[in-house]
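Late entry, evening session. Most of the bench is empty. Finally got around to the prediction I had been postponing all week. Sequence below, unchanged from the version circulated by S.P.
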Amino acid sequence: MDASFTAEQDEIRRTLRELLHKRCGAEEVRAAVAGPAGHDPALWAALADQLGMPGLALPEAYGGVGCSVTELALAGEETGRTLAPSPLLATAVLAAPLLLALGTEAQRAELLPRISSGALTAALAVPGAGLATALALTGDNGGDWAGGGRAGGVQARRDGAGGGGAGSGGDGRGRAGWRLYGQVDQVLDGHSAGLLVVAAHTGGFARSRTLLFLVTGDAAGLVRVRQTALDATRPQARLELRNVEAELLGEDGADGADGAGRSGGTDVLGALAAVGDTAAAVLAAEAVGAADRALERTVEYVRQREQFGRAIGSFQAVKHRLADVYVAVQAARSAAYYAAWATAHGEKAGGLALAQALEALRTAAAEGIQLHGGIGFTWEHEAHLYFKRAAGDELLFGPVHRLRAHAAHMARLFEQKEVAV
């Protein structure tokens, strides 16, 4: 592999860093997360208009830039440095790839250009606390995470009594409509997204299977409540679906799907797992950017803070602690870059890279708080924002030990082999 970046990739990183440096300082971040959208709409418009961030990894045929996961990961690294709150993760990393992989040509043509332009934001709604499992990061995404049987999670049925045919409660395009019931917690940017991609069970108890459905943000019967999250820079919402009209993502067959969780012959669970590996690579780069910035701020502080007549950064013990953090961050950066390259070439390394990056971020943020002394524990200082990002990401996509355990399981690392005697 060629470990060097192209001139275009370096330009994406440089331009994005300059924009975020001007418009996404600590005070701007606090003001953005306190707003109704949970992010700065003006900054999101700038990211879309000037840099094409929402469509960075989407094909040019749908208004995208046509780049790979590597460019998306580099963008994630820069947004992670400033903890910039934006719908980039929910829209471009989680929802858009599912629309591209599973959607019909009509659905892609209608939705993806609007996402690429930044006019439409989207969110992936996975019932319960199973986002990491649904994305196959911490376990097998067999579908149980969506709420099985006759109760729990989100249930889907065809519109009309007895699940009628195409003319029964359809959407006006010859397709049978669907209705969703249930509740989804911890939906990233779910309170403000214009489009929701909802995972739901259908088929009852005997033929239960997980499918994805499209729900507009203003659908009747949809209640969205913004939740208080540990990491305020990743706003989350609770969705209540009360007989909400929905459209199946993908081709709608005679019964909507077969018994293997396939819609129109497309593997829904496989698509979720593929998106999970891409998301892990981008999240790893994000965590590396945040860890690198936390380390930079700590180094700046220990050079200025004096104790016993000298800067505390000159003490050998402080040097050793920061050197350990530096090594952890650089190792995590190498893993994140490799994961982005591997994902773009059909290999899977996102889970392990994410584990290493989250561990590096947690270490960098914790050491930053400790070495800042009393001010590091205050709400006024930004050190706690990085620590909360580390803890929040582990709650959503980890924890680290489960990410590593699942990667080892998938690689059959500890599988016993029979030895011929």
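Two things to note before I forget:
The chain has three domains: 7-117, 122-264, 271-410.
Confidence is low (pLDDT under 50) at residues 161-175, 254-265.
Will write this up properly tomorrow.
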